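Now for a sample.
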Amino acid sequence: MAVPELNVAIFKPGAEIYIDEDKCVGCGRCVEVCPEDVYTLEKRPEEKDPDKEYKSVAIHPERCILCLSCLEICGKNAIYIYGQQ
């Protein structure tokens, strides 16, 4: 008896992550919620507005498991994620 061939997608961690610096206010919510420590906050050089002193940066996009917690928590809709195939 022949076994049917299955189309199975294999999950690969990692994603392309884009953070819109004009929208990001450096609140740190994405840093706190990410289970894989993908994000960190960096000081913006020469920023005079205290509300935009920091920005979020995806330092380990290869760790992203596409849980999308960062998208849900970002109040400014500054994060865009494109999954790997």
About this structure: DSSP finds two helices and four strands in the chain. The domain at 15-83 is CATH 3.30.70.20 (Alpha-Beta Plaits). The CA atoms of residues 15 and 84 lie 5 Å apart. The mean pLDDT is 89.
